[in-house]
Every structure is written in C-alpha cells, then in structure tokens.
Design brief:
The complex is a heterodimer of chains A (356) and B (104). Chain A is of the alpha+beta class. Helix content of chain A is 35%, strand content 22%. In chain B, 26% of the residues are buried. Classes of the chains: A alpha+beta (356), B mainly alpha (104).
Chain lengths: 356, 104
C-alpha cells in the first residue's frame, strides 16, 4: 500500500426520519388486499420484531421541505469536506463517486458533482462496488497518488435509495409471506452522503494498509437491477421489481467470514486486532456489528459509533459518515490505529488500516 | 437435564377470539417444531446443535421461528436474548422458561 492521507471528511444527513411505526403502517396498507389476515399479521408483527432485533428505530430520509435529493446531499457533503480541507474545487485532480443508489448511468455522477462544485475539467468517474464502494475508491485514489499522477482527490459516497425505488418497482408490497424476506432489506435503507479529500501529502490520518476478499458463490444473495433484466441461473427476479436480497444469508456469512478474514489480514500486516483503537464497521444492524465484535473477541466499546439505530443502512456512506462522527465526537485521537471493516454483497469484504 | 413439568398457558387466537389451553412442548416436540419450520430431519437436532454453525440458520431466520412461537403461545421473547439462542438446547431452555413465566 502506498501512502495517502485523509485531509478532511465531510458528511450530510438529511433531516427527515422514517420510523418503524410508519414503515409497518405502509407495509400493512400495501399488502392488506392480497395477503390473508394471518399472513398479514405475521408479516407486520414479524417485521416489527426484526426491527427490534436489529436495533433500528428510524431511517434518515430526505425531507421534502429541505429540497434534499441524491445530488444535493453529495454536493453538501463534498463542500463540507472541501471547506474542512481549505481547498478550492479547482485544486482537485479527480472526483470519484460511489453509491449503491447512484441514479446515473450517463453521465457519471462524479461528473455531475464536479459540475455542481464549479469544476470545468478534470478526471471524474464513478466506482460501483456496492457497499464496499467507499473503501475501494480510497484504494484506487491512493494508487493514483502512488504513481504521482494526482495530488488531491475527492471521494464522495451518496445514498438515497428512496429516490430510485419507484423506477425499480420497489415499494412496500411483497409477493407473499415467503417472499417477504427477500424484500426485507429495503425496509432498513437510510439516506446520507459523505466525502473525503485524499491527498498525497499530509500530517496524520494516513492510509497504511488495505486488503479485500471477494467470492462469487453467493453472487445473487443481493441483486439490485432494472426490472426485467435477464439474470443467469434459475432464480430470476420478478419482472415488476428489480430488488431481491437474502439478508439472512448475508448477515450470517458476514458474521462467519469477517473474523477469519480480519485475523488473517492483520496477521499479514504483522499486527494483532488488539493493536487497533477504533473499529468502524459497515452498518447492517447493531447486533450484526456486536456479534462480529464478539467473534473477534473485541470489546463493544471499540466500536463506539453506531448510526444504524437512527439512520438505518446508508450502504456505501455508512463507513465515512461513522468515521466523520467518530472524529467529531472525539472518539479517535492522533496516533490511533483505526480499522475500517466493510462487507458487501458479492460477497466481498475489505479492511483498511488508517493511522490517525 | 430438563424435566417436563406440567405448566400450562392459554393461547389467545385473534382469529377465533378464543383462549386455548397450551402446555409447553417437550424437548422432543420442540425439535419437531424446529424441523417442520426449517425443513430438517429431527435426528440432526440435539441439545448442543448450533443453529448457525451446524444448521446454517442465521439469526434473522431464527426470528421468523421465534415470531411464530410468540404468536402461537402469546409470549414475547426478549430480542436481546435471541443472541443466546446459539444451540437448540439453549433455545428450548429460554422458550420453556418464557412459557412457564407466562403460565405462572
């Protein structure tokens, strides 16, 4: 790994909150005509109990009166990061954007963001690496810096799945009780954006190591695509909905796979997990985070920032938002070793070591 | 060893608007309930059988089963204790205790 430094972090969380009660009401309303009374009761009661289990109380959503959307959130987070870095947009060599709910196929979201920031030329591109997009983007940017090609790169993660959902046929309707679990993940989605300025030179917050692992066996554990797209295999998506996820498989695999991956990785870095002062994990649920820490034999206090309860799953924005909050709340000090743990559908895992 | 004692609770059916007397299931009956729900043979299920490591049953799947039990028996399992449902035996112990308290 070649050296790159986090010069600043910015983030933006919209003011709106969608509570469990509101989600359950929408779920009941959307399914009351085609599900039997008993199945509807099981769906609504069971979903509520799963929320309690996962520790979610609300999701951050864009409030209409604030005029927030996917683009404006990314712009606000990017401007916050640039202000903190005391950089003008024109001093950036490159803008990279990641986001599971990226609304753009053409042009790139990064180019749209650059335009909104007032940039006229530069290298602007998106990285689609699902929930691992932020760490992957950091790795790519650091590699550019290692070649001497770029000095300052802005990486932004913006997530607003609610803006994308109607076009993909994603709503609160489930096909039947058995199929409800394949849509459950959508009930946890939250909105938010974060951005970092990465620089080739800096003082602290140095990216020291990065490692990732990818497997193809469960490639279809979570699929988000345009409805009607032909997929390989014998488990096609329903034509009216472009989303299906096996949250059960993903959470159990993450809990099983991350400990060995983390242990092997830090050993390869000639370190031990005890060397790390702060753990920031992709948020799939408080209990998933804590179960993973238990398997790593780590104190829960080492992961003191958990936004899942209030913001829900902000996908690729989870890690940078939590990192920004850790700094803001004084949970990390200069010289600390910070381990960022990312898990994503694929399945893929990534670890990044930052020396603060 | 877990002894079967005669503790009964009433199950309230929202559909029939009636109470039905329920005895907590024996461990053998509990194994059958798990087997029926998840589609396993009961001979795979022992006290020490791990849901995750031996059966590949994750916590969210387990909650679907817990929810069915809650609705059937009119009880409510503390969600924090779901993490303690690591094995079939531990699950039975927690479930039975809950029914005994409810029948108490």
């Amino acid at each position: 790994m070649n050296t790159a430094y986090i010069r600043s972090i910015g983030y933006y969380i919209p003011q709106g909150r969608l509570t469990n009660r509101e989600v359950l009401e929408r779920l009941k309303e959307a399914n009351k005509h085609h599900l039997g009374k008993e199945d509807l009761e099981l769906l609504v009661y069971g979903s509520g109990r799963k929320f309690e289990f996962l520790g979610i109380e609300s999701r951050s959503v864009c409030a209409q009166e604030d005029g927030d959307n996917t683009v404006t959130m990314a712009v606000k987070a990017a401007r916050n990061a640039l202000d903190a870095a005391r950089l003008e947009p024109g001093e950036l060599d490159c803008v990279i954007l990641c986001g599971v709910s990226n609304p753009f196929r053409e042009p790139t979201f990064a180019l749209v963001l650059a335009r909104q920031l007032g940039m006229k030329t530069g290298d602007f591109f998106d990285i689609n690496d699902t929930c691992n997009g932020f760490l992957k983007s950091m790795d790519v940017a650091a590699r550019y810096m290692a070649t001497g090609m770029y000095k300052n790169v802005l990486i932004a993660a913006g997530e607003n799945p609610y803006e994308l959902a109607p076009g993909l046929g994603i709503d609160y309707k489930v096909p039947d009780l058995a199929g409800a679990d394949t849509r459950f993940g959508a009930l946890l989605a939250g909105c938010g954006a974060a951005a970092v300025v990465l620089s080739a030179e800096g003082d602290g917050r140095k990216i020291v190591h990065y490692r990732e692992k990818r497997e193809t066996l469960n490639w279809d554990a979570s699929v988000l695509t345009v409805p009607g797209i032909a997929l390989p295999g014998d488990t096609p998506l329903p034509l009216d909905c472009g989303f299906r996820t096996d949250a059960r498989l993903i959470s159990s695999q993450v809990i099983k796979d991350i400990p060995a991956f983390a242990a092997d990785t830090v050993a390869a870095w000639n370190m031990s997990l005890d060397d790390f002062n702060l753990f920031i994990m992709h948020q799939l649920g408080n209990n998933v985070t804590f179960a993973t820490l238990d398997r790593l034999k780590l104190d829960h206090a080492k992961a003191p920032v958990n936004t899942f309860r209030e913001y829900g799953n902000m996908a690729s924005a989870n890690i940078p938002v939590n990192l920004a909050l850790a700094e803001k709340r004084g949970k990390v000090s200069r010289g600390d070793s910070v381990l960022l743990l990312s898990s994503a559908c694929g399945l893929s895992y990534a670890l990044m070591h930052i020396e603060w | 060893m877990i002894l079967d004692v005669n503790v009964y609770i009433f199950e309230y059916s929202k559909h029939d608007k009636e109470f039905t007397l329920h005895a907590p299931p024996s461990f053998d009956r509990f194994k059958h309930m798990i087997a029926d729900h998840f589609g396993f043979e009961t001979d795979r299920l022992e006290h020490a059988t791990s849901f995750l490591d031996d059966l590949g049953i994750d916590s969210l799947s387990l909650i679907n089963f817990v929810v069915k039990l809650e609705l059937k028996y009119g009880i409510k399992i503390d969600m924090d204790s779901v993490w303690d449902l690591r094995s079939v035996g531990e699950a039975y112990k927690i479930f039975r205790k809950k029914i005994e308290v409810a029948g108490g």
